[in-house]
TrEMBL record, chains A, B:
SUPFAM superfamilies: Winged helix' DNA-binding domain
Keyword Metal-binding part of the UniProt annotation: no
GO molecular function: DNA binding
Name of this chain's protein: Transcriptional regulator, HxlR family
Length: 114, 114
DNA sequence: ATAGTCACTTTCCTAAAGGGAACCGATAGT
DNA sequence: ACTATCGGTTCCCTTTAGGAAAGTGACTAT
């Protein structure tokens, strides 16, 4: 019984960590876009993520990079462009994105019924 | 091409809706506990969700009920107790919880490495 | 010289989330 | 009369997320 309690405590910590990292208004959308296009510039991401401001986008990208989910590459172009791409490790996020997407679609229908 | 763009816009809306509903510090933990025990009283939930205050717990539960994910039942006991239980529909959340839990566990390991 | 592009940063602000502590009403036990 | 339990609510406060708008620096094109 105590064993099970410990396991569920670990589970709670894992869930809390995950949602602390991925929660918020933009992270999943950014990862979804990067997942789709594989590599995008700052401006691309800004245009795809309708409504985001450069300040906020910049912060989200930094946090994702800090957590090893994306890479940032400065290109030798003029004017400078910067490419963002998901890491191999970011594939671990895909099940979460897909589950969230699936639930979100169903839920939009469900709430429409009311 | 335009078709694909429309599909991805719908996807983004679905993801945004889902994270708007389930984001925040406590919702997934509450759903995880209810998923495990099936029916819990207010006080049980308060004790399991370490650190939560009654005000915040109350708000989370109301939002989950509004979204048809849990039911609230007042019991005929003394003093009054209130039971919360996941709805059948709440099963749709399980894949999200599991994916988040799985990623969270892996990520805790990953970050420990650094 | 001027205007434009890109990837930001800076400053200022507001709204929302969340926490602390106390309180409440109904009821029960001693 | 006093204390406790349960499921909250109320009030106040701090922290954080996020948005608006402007600016910056390196470079290019006209």
């Amino acid at each position: 019984m105590d064993i099970n309690k410990d396991i569920s405590k670990e589970d709670i910590l894992a869930i809390k960590d995950a949602i602390e990292l991925l929660g918020g208004k933009w992270k999943f959308c950014i990862l979804y876009h990067l997942n789709t296009y594989q590599t995008m510039r700052f401006k691309d991401l800004q245009e795809m993520s309708v409504g985001i401001t450069p300040k906020v986008l910049s912060k989200q990208l930094q946090e994702l990079e800090d957590n090893l989910l994306i890479t940032r590459t400065v290109n030798n172009t003029k004017p400078v462009t910067v490419s963002y791409a998901p890491t191999k490790y970011a594939e671990e996020i895909n099940p979460v994105i897909n589950a969230l997407l699936s639930f979100g679609s169903k839920h939009r229908e469900k709430i429409k019924e009311k």
